[in-house]
Design goal:
The complex is a heterodimer of chains A (110) and B (111). Chain A contains no helices and 11 strands. Chain A is mostly beta strands. Chain B is built from no helices and 11 strands. The chains are: A mainly beta (110), B mainly beta (111).
Amino acid sequence: NAGVTQTPKFQVLKTGQSMTLQCAQDMNHEYMSWYRQDPGMGLRLIHYSVGAGITDQGEVPNGYNVSRSTTEDFPLRLLSAAPSQTSVYFCASSSGPLRYFGPGTRLTVT
Amino acid sequence: KQEVTQIPAALSVPEGENLVLNCSFTDSAIYNLQWFRQDPGKGLTSLLLIQSSQREQTSGRLNASLDKSSGRSTLYIAASQPGDSATYLCAVPVYGQNFVFGPGTRLSVLP
């Protein structure tokens, strides 16, 4: 199993650009989520999904969209990038209390 | 609103020392608590999961305790090694399968 994979590993965007961060898992987990990690603030939940076709907002959803058309994939879209979205983004999946994390995407918005 | 804090923010110790990392949470109505490890530039790896009915959970040189009434958990690392150097985060569930994470303790174990 590859576990949770994320692409790209690094990305630099200009303010106002849009992009999609990809996340995929091969463990057939129903639950998937996106977090951002900023220095001194821990991980904050952006959006999550409890199964294909079902998504919901987390703590910091503004500026981000998600969709879940398959069990395997959970992409995160930045609609119009802002410098405040500079962060490290982690995707995670689980089928219970244990969480499996991807390696992260480091995003810089200039 | 559940808030999670961790003390200390950073810790540097010589190899071989026993050490304790602390995690505090404001709402004691939790049903489990997890400790994670994060290596630089990597994702998080789950170390220990303590259910609310347990007081301790052990894995190798790691021992985690949970005191719900006081809103605290500790992670004890015995005989620390340079390979233990990483950031350690605790997390508690809030709704559904979602977590609130602490900011982490960055540990450096010096050879």
